[in-house]
Amino acid sequence: MLSDPGILCYQHCNAKIFSFQLPDVCPLCNKKLLNENNNFGLLPFRLPYPFVRASQTQAAVILRPTKGDFLNDYNNKTDLHIALTTSQGIIVEFDRHGLRRHVPRDSNSLWEQSLIVESVSEAWFEHWDETLAMMCKQGIWTEATYKKDTYNCYTFVLTFLQALKYGEISLAAKNRTLFCEKFICPRTVVAGKYISLYRKIRDNGRYIHLSSTGKNGNRK
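The structure corresponding to this sequence follows.
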């Protein structure tokens, strides 16, 4: 499971250049970058990594691909698995195996690369944990009750959010389509841009985006 690959961005020769490491010379003009006259249009910075280790989140709704991981396997047709964490970072999920919990010390690589859909402030931690504990005691989240298309991980999370009564996300949780439009899609769109850029760099060593005043806006 890959952690943050560390995508760097810098501007040189009227182009934005993305890579995992800052090269010694500019790939466009071959001039040395690490000197006093490097003429960066944009100083090198590291792009924010959109994924988190689920066990390090607190009172959050978390998301990952059902199979594989985001960086290598995700596309817009990928099935996604949604779950919750407690204020102590315990992952609580409902799937074909029923209701399961993974404490932070567990080695669960499937949740090492997750998206946060929503989290609550510390003031809500106690109510979050109490609501989740009560729901888990209902006895309706079992291997026998699980149905892939009709009674699944989304059912579990949306039922919890409705019971939580936490503003807009709890209102949206009353309708699966609305919830996906308002909370899932915006997160996956941002992640998708990072994933696309990562794969271009992985496959080609770098990605170059020329400005409109460059060579016909070509990309390398």
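The first helix runs from residue 70 to 73.
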